Amino acid sequence: MEKKIHSLPLEGDDGTIDARIDLDREQRCGFTEVIYAAGKTPEQVARIACELALYTHTVLATRASEKHYRAVRNTCDEHTVIFHETARIIEVASSVVPAPTIDEDGLIVVASGGTADLPVAEEAALTAEKMGSRVMRLYDVGVAGVHRVLEHEDLLRQARVVIAVAGMEGALPTLIAGLVAVPVIAVPTSVGYGASFAGIAPLLTMLNSCAGGIGVVNIDNGFGAAVLASRINRPKWSE
Amino acid sequence: MEKKIHSLPLEGDDGTIDARIDLDREQRCGFTEVIYAAGKTPEQVARIACELALYTHTVLATRASEKHYRAVRNTCDEHTVIFHETARIIEVASSVVPAPTIDEDGLIVVASGGTADLPVAEEAALTAEKMGSRVMRLYDVGVAGVHRVLEHEDLLRQARVVIAVAGMEGALPTLIAGLVAVPVIAVPTSVGYGASFAGIAPLLTMLNSCAGGIGVVNIDNGFGAAVLASRINRPKWSE
Amino acid sequence: MEKKIHSLPLEGDDGTIDARIDLDREQRCGFTEVIYAAGKTPEQVARIACELALYTHTVLATRASEKHYRAVRNTCDEHTVIFHETARIIEVASSVVPAPTIDEDGLIVVASGGTADLPVAEEAALTAEKMGSRVMRLYDVGVAGVHRVLEHEDLLRQARVVIAVAGMEGALPTLIAGLVAVPVIAVPTSVGYGASFAGIAPLLTMLNSCAGGIGVVNIDNGFGAAVLASRINRPKWSE
Amino acid sequence: MEKKIHSLPLEGDDGTIDARIDLDREQRCGFTEVIYAAGKTPEQVARIACELALYTHTVLATRASEKHYRAVRNTCDEHTVIFHETARIIEVASSVVPAPTIDEDGLIVVASGGTADLPVAEEAALTAEKMGSRVMRLYDVGVAGVHRVLEHEDLLRQARVVIAVAGMEGALPTLIAGLVAVPVIAVPTSVGYGASFAGIAPLLTMLNSCAGGIGVVNIDNGFGAAVLASRINRPKWSE
Amino acid sequence: MEKKIHSLPLEGDDGTIDARIDLDREQRCGFTEVIYAAGKTPEQVARIACELALYTHTVLATRASEKHYRAVRNTCDEHTVIFHETARIIEVASSVVPAPTIDEDGLIVVASGGTADLPVAEEAALTAEKMGSRVMRLYDVGVAGVHRVLEHEDLLRQARVVIAVAGMEGALPTLIAGLVAVPVIAVPTSVGYGASFAGIAPLLTMLNSCAGGIGVVNIDNGFGAAVLASRINRPKWSE
Amino acid sequence: MEKKIHSLPLEGDDGTIDARIDLDREQRCGFTEVIYAAGKTPEQVARIACELALYTHTVLATRASEKHYRAVRNTCDEHTVIFHETARIIEVASSVVPAPTIDEDGLIVVASGGTADLPVAEEAALTAEKMGSRVMRLYDVGVAGVHRVLEHEDLLRQARVVIAVAGMEGALPTLIAGLVAVPVIAVPTSVGYGASFAGIAPLLTMLNSCAGGIGVVNIDNGFGAAVLASRINRPKWSE
Amino acid sequence: MEKKIHSLPLEGDDGTIDARIDLDREQRCGFTEVIYAAGKTPEQVARIACELALYTHTVLATRASEKHYRAVRNTCDEHTVIFHETARIIEVASSVVPAPTIDEDGLIVVASGGTADLPVAEEAALTAEKMGSRVMRLYDVGVAGVHRVLEHEDLLRQARVVIAVAGMEGALPTLIAGLVAVPVIAVPTSVGYGASFAGIAPLLTMLNSCAGGIGVVNIDNGFGAAVLASRINRPKWSE
Amino acid sequence: MEKKIHSLPLEGDDGTIDARIDLDREQRCGFTEVIYAAGKTPEQVARIACELALYTHTVLATRASEKHYRAVRNTCDEHTVIFHETARIIEVASSVVPAPTIDEDGLIVVASGGTADLPVAEEAALTAEKMGSRVMRLYDVGVAGVHRVLEHEDLLRQARVVIAVAGMEGALPTLIAGLVAVPVIAVPTSVGYGASFAGIAPLLTMLNSCAGGIGVVNIDNGFGAAVLASRINRPKWSE
Hints:
The structure is a homooctamer.
Chain A: E1 7-11, E2 17-22, H1 25-29, E3 35-36, H2 42-52, E4 58-62, H3 66-75, E5 80-84, E6 89-93, E7 107-112, H4 118-130, E8 134-138, H5 147-150, H6 153-158, E9 161-166, H7 172-177, E10 184-188, H8 200-207, E11 214-216, H9 222-233
Parallel strand pairs in A: 3-4, 7-8, 7-9, 9-10, 10-11
Antiparallel strand pairs in A: 1-2, 4-6, 5-6
Helix pairs in contact in A: 2-3, 4-9
């Protein structure tokens, strides 16, 4: 009986296998592997991205720098390569795999507390869009002026899931979860100083929320929030 | 113009208002307030529970002790009062509000790592059931023997959402999120000793998961996981 | 030139001087020393309380237990001794020093997030009253149901200073400070579990508030909040 | 009935709404929004500052860099723009909104422990002045030479409120609160090394002070201390 | 060549060697081993104490309970056994080893911040006395009333070394080290609550003192402070 | 093709499957599952222990209390049940599975710093013996008297692996790893107080050792150290 | 009797002895001292490396930079000097000490979770090779795709010891220890962000593993893992 | 009666008093103020240093950079200015105050664990020399090779006080305090990585030492250790 191969090894210049592509990921989990660029060399990111573009239409590399982008653009020159700067995401649109047909599902609303939370909020919003959901942005609605949120209660009520991004004291997800009945994904950010401890303060706030219905992701993890939101919003993935 | 009243104040024996019932919660958020019994006196829990039973069919009090139970049973004697011991939940079934008709939605699977995680897992499972979902339990499938999880891959694939409960190193949610495409709600427990720091270790594990699609709740927060799972599983709440 | 004596040494049974009464405190800081009973023996609390009652009309001992109370009542039997149980405060009304005439100043509002915060909120409210301020209580107005606070915006606007007491995620002071223009004193409580870390979570929330005008005190420190509120509310103390 | 608008959305170059001006803030809380520049791009700070200068006479941006300053100066060229370097504050004096008439209220004394605390102390002092209070500075009076504080007891006694800024062991607020009867606002700074943990040490010192009457703000938060002091010093704000 | 024996093994009832007496300690370090009773069974403490009393005149067991005391008294009945309750120290005065002649050296002053610090302060004072130094106690001179310390400046100036014991914010050692030129040994205590974190707050305060000349010991470690003070006060030990 | 079963589900009284026996563990990992009793009910421990005794000769339950022991003894009455009190281990010697023939391999030396570390050291020593290794104990050889270790250098040099157990500052593993060439397993214990933070201090010491060749296990984890030592000492397990 | 010299002092340019070579290390512990270059000046590393090359064939300097390398190459020009960049290790092959004859022992497998863990994994792999073991690399087999590990179960079963390197949630060692019967050395890395706290998250995961047989080393300590693996793999060192 | 002046205010260029010289320090505490340069501008350090040189012979500025040095050299050109680079100390030898006559007292030995600890060790050694003590250096005697310390037992026994400087696991002070009878001042350093947490690991080790007679100072605080050692070594300061 033939043994099934689940992963594809990639070699660096010196012949060491330093990456393995998870070939079944899309089938198992609904979306291809996304490359986490931070901590990888530009050469590694480019090599993995181009390889993935042979198997899937949309390849994403998050936490990417300008250097990563240049390497990908130069290496994957047969594909379309876009750098979304605020979101720090490289997108490779494959020239060999056709785009999937996407049924638009429910709405994902990405709300954020302050202007400085933009990169994380955009990482979430863009990733969710690329994973096939309709997204609306609602930025700078922090709780110090509670009326800024209350003014948009109607929009929040249309969502199938809300991603709430906030730094400093991080009370936004609690406020929203008390207003609506849909799942709220809470993303603490490292925005703040002193006793925010690079995001620990809003992380704890969100974990201790007295409102139910909140799931928390890692500090600054806009990407993870988007994956969770997509899994909630697109139940056909699990069929 | 008449001002709308949103909350109902309750008075203690000495006349101090020490609780306010949130009258719109069910309409706004899909389910009535649940009483967090720890830190409240038996008298307070009983008073709030009986009041709530005038407005809703199923009243729950979590983290309840035997003492809380006796006070509720004695005070709310017109209603049916049940104590779920492992889950530490008091349930009051109102005799004046009829049970709602429930459309069974998708399946919630509650998986747990070890035998000692049972109270938290049961808090989650029971709450989700009382909030109207179909629930299946998959206990003691910790990652030290990875085949125990893999044996049940089929069951996991039937779920609309998985709640994964684990203490010690807390790797169970990662493992499951890598196997299926549905949302995984991760519940760290305080089971462990030494450097588990009463649940910090599994909490951090879950927040740092390299698998996407995971939302984390507070340590031992089976209740919160159930609310989030219900909001995911029952989208009609948001209509 | 005569050396001025600022403190009065007290001796225990074995002759060791284990306490010194700060004789100028009332003159320097507007109110006599208050006894922090936790960590002191009943005998010590009683000895200090009775001595203080020779110099001032109202003696308070905070964080007191039933045992402390019995010792004080037995020892200071010439004075009136009251035990405020919820607030855990012993009050000794001196029979030899007349009550001061008090000009009622502005209003202090003590707001609290949940029912379990009552002991801390009452410690604050009672202390502020005994220090000569008019106090109103607004309990169980946590942010998970934001309308419970908004309903009482008028009351909050009448205050000269607000004490906001909250455990779990501790967002109440931020919400209030965004609604009014008076100083808000934030008191985190140890109410909660898991990642609340016995009050660290609300403490950090309050320190990182994106709303201005908030001063934070130690976890569960209702007493300290009352002293600060009194100093704000009664400027004549500094004349 | 017309719906009242509470906030004004601002668009970035790409059309995303990345900031919302809280139009009622001055009326609700006594002073217009202050811009926290750190984490915002120079372009964003400039855009918000110029917009705010249409509604209020004095616009402040704290934690600002030289780059922020240049952007504001270039963009808001119709107004007067000043950069207070030590305090790291940009001030925009509107050319279209007249300066308010200010009744000088009580005195705010800003005391600091060491020379290195100057930026934080100046942030506090300057903000308090711009918010309309009379301010006196008392710098480098740390507790290692306790006589440096005691020499200025008279000055401290004239204050309506004292802001005490200190890094390292942070004992200055305790010392001052034991000398006077007015509120003391304690500002821990990140000055120090090793076990000061970037300000945790003085933060804990201040929260645990054995002297009453102290309210603590975030590490290095001179701005927050000034807002609190202004709310204490200028009670007419709440009328 | 004969191998020198440095330690003497002791056997428990089941024959396991569970303790080894360090025979050279007195010669090497100036004083015999002191037994740390916490975590040892009464039987173990008694067995070790009686064995040590064969080699040295004064045997001490710190952190001892009533149970430890009864075991020692029963087992070492040939020697004089005293229980110092406040200090939690058992003293065994050997009946077979004569008391050493002691030259009284300089003075050790043990100062403490509050009444609740007494057990730690007494552990330090009593140990220092038993190790041969002259000791004076100066208790309840915390910094909230700075005049209580300043009144005793003369006494502090007579000391060869000062042990300063304090909980809560722990500023006492800094204050004293700024007044005198002798070494100050700082002992943080676990007295306090909330953000004192069982003594972390005063520990950090003391480590970050802006005054020079301070050496810090572990939280509640009155014993360690006494050993260090003795080594400073009695230089002949090193000859 | 028949699906292989890897785990055996066990049911509690209410029919919930609350434990699963890992049937392949011995074959995969060299030794049957060991029961961690803490956090399990006596009934659960007894049920699992008796079931395991049908498959393996020696069943161990660690962190067991007297209550657990009584339940096991009563339930598994056909087998021999022993309670090792100091080590807190219940041993069930199966009456239906014969004892395996054991080749004695190299020596494991279990060294400990102080008398109070005994329970952890015994947990390690006993477990290693039951897993088939020859063990020697070397207790109370802490580094404050370095000669106590140096006296036993010969014994240490005979070991195939050393388990070094220490609380407080935890320097023993470093000292030993600098003396010998075999692997050293470091076990921090929670023995200590104050800034030992229940074992964090020795844990960090061991992780930061400047000596090579040290592997660290969790605080108080004598069991884990024994498993690791057994895997090192008995390479035939991996064949 | 002549006193044996154990260490050789080295002088810096200003005559201060700033390093001492441990002459017996190879004999006592199986391998010569390895230089930890971080925190040492290039001049110091070069001086120590060249001196060591007089006594041993292979000199290693870990955590070395390009600057360190250039200094060593220039100073030790009589020897062969190689810089392994990914592993950040300088190797000096002595021209005066012959290479030892090495018996190849069992196999060490170095597994890693992700591509970004490469530098730490290579530090481990290269050091183990230089210390005389046969090494195989198995990189990018993180647990999010558990099949990537399961595919290589055969290779893992051939090892005498496995080094498992992982950042983020760090569950790889647990998974492997549940599959094989050999010792697993767990190396947490600082790869990750937010609540990984620079490696604390995987460190805690590994310490709390529910699988037995794991020894943990410091964060990013590939070198220490290699020393421990060598001590396990090459028992002749201890003869 | 004339009021005595204790401190001399210094003005910056903008007229703000940003420093106050403590005029009585030398008389009260045995040595003039030392300037902590980090966090002060070069201009401030130079201004304070030159002012101090009018009152005392030796002025020191610690944690100084090259920039600080140049400013001091240019400003204080009438005095002799030396920069001790390794110790990061600027020394100003006054041309107007004569050097004091110094009685050489006992010996201070400064021991350090590793080469990378040199800057901290030199800060301690140099400061102690400038404060008038005889100093001997004993560097790179870390505990991984315990014989390196034992070889120098004789030197250690000649000291009146030992300063033991160590990073990583920080066990050196314990080892030394177990060998001699004099006070040991423990200085943890930030040398290390990963779980050393920038010096927390050795700090905790030292605070938890099982050897008596150790006083700990802040991480990297060579200066503080020298002040404490001087106070111990030169008792005439307190006369």
